[in-house]
Specification:
The complex is a heterodimer of chains A (136) and B (138). Chain A contains 6 helices and no strands. With 136 residues, chain A is mostly helical. Chain B has 6 helices and no strands. Classes of the chains: A mainly alpha (136), B mainly alpha (138).
């Protein structure tokens, strides 16, 4: 119950932050990526604001073993910088640049019930499933 | 003002990541959370589903409160969202993360792997926008 509450609070803050910061607006995202055109730097402030919180959070929780819920803090174990990481990031960047949506904002935008945004999320889930099959 | 709103939005996203980490010991990565709604079972599926629903509700609520217009697509038709969605899903799937997992949390942890991934997808996105502008004229 407590865990569900925490997840709901985190999810709501995440969605609110994405919308407030402009990350859910594809035109703005593409403007941010348009470094060689009419560059709109505002989304750098979204990343900056998030890191203002996450860098100290992770730094000061290094010695912490348990979360508020009692579960263990499990940092991702992967360390290697390999071709999967890089090629995945390249493909993700292409999709992001084409349509101006990354996974968080794509999901957050579902409230608009825009059928093209729904098609994006469905395709994204298919892509995630294919990647999972390919990795298995 | 626009920059302040972006900064405030970023801080909210950071606090969301803080709650997921300190509260539940989880990394807030939207690509794996979304995928997990499909392939996880039981409790592991349920909390991811809650996160997804709460994200949608949070975006809806703040858009209405702040009078932010619903986002509109930059390209019309079905082909672009399908191609881009497949690329984003497959890419974040094999690359183990997206803007939230690698960008917000991974860089927050100072993980070299996430810093590299973020630089690569940013560079790839910048190159794609530049190419699209030349090819499509916008």
């Amino acid at each position: 119950m407590k865990q569900t509450m925490l997840v709901a609070v985190a999810g709501a803050l995440f969605g609110a932050g994405l919308a407030l910061g402009g990350m859910t607006n594809p035109a703005k995202v593409v403007g941010f990526l348009d470094l060689f055109g009419a560059w709109d730097p505002s989304l750098a402030f979204v990343m900056g604001g998030a890191l203002l919180v996450t860098v100290p959070t992770f730094f000061f929780s290094k010695t912490r073993k348990l979360a508020w819920s009692g579960s263990t803090l499990t940092e991702p174990s992967a360390r290697q910088i390999d071709s999967r990481l890089v090629s995945g990031a390249v493909l993700f960047g292409i999709g992001w640049g084409i349509y101006g949506l990354c996974p968080g904002p794509a999901v957050a935008n579902l409230w608009t019930l825009n059928p093209e945004f729904i098609a994006f999320v469905v395709s994204m889930v298919v892509g995630l499933l294919v990647a999972r099959k390919a990795s298995a | 003002m626009e920059y302040l709103l972006s900064l405030a939005g970023g801080v909210l996203i950071g606090i969301a990541a803080l709650v997921m980490w300190l509260g539940l010991g989880r990394i807030m990565g939207m690509s794996s959370i979304t995928g997990g709604v499909i392939w996880e079972k039981g409790h592991e599926r349920i909390w991811r589903l809650w996160f997804v629903v709460a994200t949608i509700v949070g975006a809806f609520a703040v858009s209405h409160l702040m009078g932010i217009a619903p986002s509109e697509a930059i390209r019309s038709g079905w082909v672009w969202p399908v191609i881009a969605g497949l690329l984003v899903g497959f890419g974040t799937g094999i690359g183990s993360g997206c803007t939230s997992g690698h960008g917000v949390c991974g860089i927050g942890r100072l993980s070299p792997r996430s810093i590299i991934a973020t630089c690569v997808f940013m560079a790839s996105g910048i190159a794609t926008v530049a190419v699209m502008r030349i090819v499509m004229g916008g």
